[in-house]
Amino acid sequence: MLIHVPHRPGINFVIGVNGSGKSTIGCAIAATFACTEPIAHRVPDGKVGNLVNKYCTNRVSSSEIVISGGEGMPDVTIKRTIKAVDGESVFSMDGGSS
Q1: Rounded CA gap, 26 and 95, in Å?
Q2: How far is CA 66 from CA 20, 42, 59, 79, 86, in A?
Q3: Residue 94 near residue 77, CB atoms below 8 Å
Q4: By three-state DSSP, how is residue 71 classified?
Q5: Cα–Cα distance measured from residue 95 to residue 66, given in angstroms and rounded to the nearest whole number
Q6: Are the C-beta atoms of residues 66 and 73 closer than 8 Å to each other?
Q7: At 39, is the secondary structure helix, strand, or coil?
Q8: What whole-number distance in Å separates Cα of residue 3 and Cα of residue 65?
Q9: Edge-to-edge order in the sheet of strand 60-67
């Protein structure tokens, strides 16, 4: 699933009715940047692999954030892939592993 969240200078809000996925967007952003505190309530046993949907056939999930570089500057792409089996995380920036 691809979600595009446009942002503007100043304060940005994600709004929607209950159950529309506002917290899921925040969780995906936090998980991509390896921030564990905001997503701790979704991973009570501390195993990041449990963030992967248990009904997903390949048991791998990834989140990707593209930060616009602005006029004349390249975009920066940050990606995190999580394997549910062992909880291994692979981070990459602009396609290269880190």
Answers
A1: 23
A2: 22, 24, 24, 9, 27
A3: yes
A4: coil
A5: 12
A6: no
A7: helix
A8: 10
A9: 60-67, 76-83, 89-93, 96-97
Q: Which amino acid is located at 48 in the chain?
A: V
Could you read off the pLDDT of 11-31 as tens digits, one per residue?
777 788 998 878 777 777 777
Q: What is the DSSP letter of 54?
A: T
Angstrom distance (rounded) from CA 79 to CA 56: 19
Single-letter amino acid code for the residue at 87: G
Structure tokens at 75: 């975009």
- Residue 73 DSSP code: S
Place of tokens 């396609």: 95
Distance CA 53, CA 60 (A): 8
Mean pLDDT of the chain: 77
**pLDDT reported for residue 97:** 65
What is the model's pTM?
A: 0.63
